[in-house]
Write a structure and sequence with these properties.
- The protein is α/β, with parallel strands linked by helices.
- The protein has 4 domains: 126 residues, Response regulator (Rossmann fold), CATH 3.40.50.2300; 99 residues, Beta-Lactamase (2-Layer Sandwich), CATH 3.30.450; 136 residues, Alpha-Beta Plaits, CATH 3.30.70.270; 241 residues, EAL domain (TIM Barrel).
- The chain has 24 helices and 25 strands.
- An 8-stranded mixed β-barrel has the order 18-19-20-21-22-23-24-25, surrounded by 4 helices. A 5-stranded parallel sheet has the order 2-1-3-4-5.
- Helix 5 runs antiparallel to helix 9 and helix 16 runs parallel beside helix 18.
- It is globular, with a radius of gyration of 30 Å.
Amino acid sequence: MQPQDTTLKTLFIHDHVEEADRLASLLRNAGYKVSPKHVEAEADLPQLLQNNHWDLILAQYECTTLSMQAIFHNTRRLNRDIPVITITENPDGKRVEGLRLGASDVVGVDDDQHLLLVVSRALYNLGQRRRLRHWKRRYSEAETRCLQLLDNSRDAIAVIKEGTYIYSNDSYAQLFGYMDRDEMLCLPVIDTIAPQDQEQIKALLKTQYSDETWESSERYFQGMRSDDLPIDLTVAVSQIEYEDEAALQFCINHNFFAAGGQQQPLHGTHTAAAAPAPVPQQEAGGGSGFTEIRLHKLIEHINGAIRRAAQMSKDSLLMLIKLDQFENLRAENGIKLTEDLLHRVAELVEVHTPDQHSLSRFQEDSFVMLLPDTDADNGLRLADNLCGQLAQEIIAIEQQTFAATLSIGLTVISETVTTVESAIGRCVDAIGKLRDEQGGGQLGNGARLYELEFSPSIEEIGANTETMGRRLLGNDQYELLFQPIIGLQGVNLPIYEVLIHIKPEANPKDYPVDFIAQIFKTDAGADIDRWVIRQALIELKEKLHTTPDARLFINISRASFCDPNFSSWIKDTIEQTAIPTNALIFQLRELDISRYLNQATEVCQSLRELGSQVSLSHFGLSLDPMTMLERLSVDYVKLDRMLVDKAQEGDSGQEAIEEVINRLRASDECIIVPFIENPTMMPTLWKMGVHYIQGHYLQAPQPHMNYDFSGDQ
């Protein structure tokens, strides 16, 4: 129940004021201090939601003044977390529909005791959500402060996960001879350790996921700088959590720098190299004002708005402003001219924006504007005005003229927003939907307000992605499809990839478009993988009777190759089916491998020992994908769809994919290009030396392995 000293701010939506008053009296008699407000017209609701912090909405289901759809539309577009309890004369007939719309519950007229119990439950859940958001905000602020302290620390600090550096500050990077700390990202820690001390470090890395915690301790070993000079180190090693996952922290005290990087040699014959003095961190960007990328300052501003919304119930509006066709502009005009254009666009945005705002550079192609005390409607009008003003401008730069347009995504920063990432992510989602409405690509030329989506069918299932995935598996509602992989360079083997889909009778349209991909990011992926493998082996065994040289690609999710029992399970399963192991190619995603490299390496080795082959899919999205191939030996490399799509859009994309293919050929990798939807790219890929292609143009996924390979050349 609501605490006695807390006012229950309640909106009543009812055709009859007398009934609204009766409900308010009912709540007061139950011990609630009610501050009621009767909504008299639909036009009043947005203003009421924006001007106050409401705890509850009691609404007549059949209200003629304000429909249920209008209530939920307004609460979602303004990012309000307010439980809505609907009251109807026909609760049994309206309950399912009301819950689908998003109501906390549907209660019958005059069923007062039921209503009071529902109110108590809804307020308890609301209190839990508010407490959770409070601590999420506190946690996010603490993380931000910690990261700022790490960035600006005189101590050299690095974070290691899965045997690679995932963070280092400037002092640490410079100690090891790197001018830019980003150069150390994804660098194996072993590469920075002298050979004689690598076993010590390997043993240390194994303790990262140990169930037993241990105190921070000093370790002594010899490091290797990027210029191959050795340096003796005293490192404080700690078990930590970084981005919610177990990791190790290396810390070298700043006194080490004061001594010029010199310590007593640990190995007698080695001479330590002098470490360069750390350079104070500077803001990114060479200019001044809002055209520099100053993420720390931007994060501070948005965190301040999040605190104001939570503590003072004062909303702000966040606006992400992206320049349309940025990639094409940069490819055609070069970096300098495009940067000058972006500066001019920012100046025009400043001119047409009210004084009370904060404009900051966010990425190469975008800015973030924060408008305090601005409601959604005024923000949308401002954004639409900015888009219209810029579309009319002819911008002259270096004797050239440009016409530019903007895509603007907006979100209200209310008390439901807990982190900077979620706020900006909502703006990104809004821009994505805006551009999708324009046919996809890089053109938006407009503004869109983020509105929380509510999927009735998913709500009806009442579970998260993992639970839904397992339910489909238990109900036998998945099916396997097979798609051929065709040789481009004269190879004529019958090769297929097995894919998983939801059966039509399970109404796959009720699930998100990327539902299958999302399942395999959860632990349910391991169980589904095993089902796919068992079913695929049955199909392959049947196929081998008529086509003995058939080969099958089978995808393995992160959950499977991180399972220590997977290797033994796959061995037993293959033995039971008596299928030749060389007929199987197991495929892992680049992103999964980059996060769990050690586990992936072990699984790939065990699969090779069985006699099967390994493929790396979705290749080309990491910062330096070739580094991964140096550590993980594979038989096939399949490019990511994004590279293929960009290659079909223009010359710059084709150059990018050609560069990747050339590097792969130089490493003697067998290359597969998927998602071939038309024949235009095929001659180019053949000339580039691509070995295999795959896509709907050749054949869409089918229930059986039935492609005619005899005529594919």
